[in-house]
Amino acid sequence: MSQWGRQTGVVGLSILAAPFVIWFARHLTDRRRRRGMDAGWARRSAYAEVLMIAGTAPWLWLVLIPNHGNVRGDNLVPFRDLANQVHTGLLFAISQITGNLLVFAALGFGLMVRFRLRPLQVLLIGALGSAVIETLQWFLDLGRYSSVDDVLVNAVGAYLAAWLAHPWWRRRASVVSQDSGIEVDSRTPVS
């Protein structure tokens, strides 16, 4: 199967899974509300968690699919691949950069909503996750090109998505339950 066929297959499965993903987020929201969690926070946290997984998993699947027939390569010089992409053609560069920005965008958005991390923390998580992927691509000999530029652009994508999540950042005061040591909503009774 060609690389294009694999990509359209992953996209198609992702589209088919969308109704289940939405159902699961609603189910998780209802479950949290029944447990006494504030309705707004229950909804935001459930959708953020589901988005992190459903929005990142297809990209990971795509970048870890073996690309037989290609020889693995690597680049450890920052911005060399980005310059080569622009030199190859503007449309090619835009598609490559956009794809790499989106790999961890859902994760960055969801982390900010669910855990209210600092944007720089999200940037570091994106960089670490991307470095792991690029290393796996190289060590597993998937016929893919491993590049430090991919790490940089993936991390920037997570960072930008974290800032886009600003209106949905966790807006509740939290306290730590003395019994369990777990952070709970101050408006939610602690049992």
Structural description of this entry:
It is a single chain. The protein is mostly helical and 191 residues long. The protein has one domain (3-185). Helix content is 68%, strand content 6%. The chain is built from seven helices and four strands; from the N terminus they run H-H-E-H-H-H-H-E-H-E-E. The strands form two sheets. A two-stranded parallel sheet has the order 1-2. Strands 3-4 form a two-stranded antiparallel sheet. Strand 3 and strand 4 form a beta hairpin. Helix 5 (105-115) packs across helix 7. The longest helix is centred in the N-terminal third of the chain and has 32 residues, at 3-34. Residues 173-181 and 186-191 have low confidence and may be disordered.
Write the layout of secondary structure elements.
Layout: H1 3-34, H2 39-64, E1 73-75, H3 80-88, H4 90-102, H5 105-115, H6 119-139, E2 145-147, H7 148-164, E3 174-176, E4 183-185
Parallel strand pairs: 1-2
Antiparallel strand pairs: 3-4
Helix pairs in contact: 1-2, 2-5, 3-4, 4-7, 5-6, 5-7, 6-7
How does the overall form come out from the CA principal axes?
globular
Q: What is the mean pLDDT?
A: 87
| Uncertain residue segments | 173-181, 186-191
Q: Roughly how many Å is the radius of gyration?
A: 19 Å
- How far apart lie the N and C ends? 55 Å
- Structural class assignment: mainly alpha
What's the arrangement of strands in the largest beta sheet?
1-2
Largest sheet: 2 strands, parallel
In total, how many domains does the architecture comprise?
A: 1
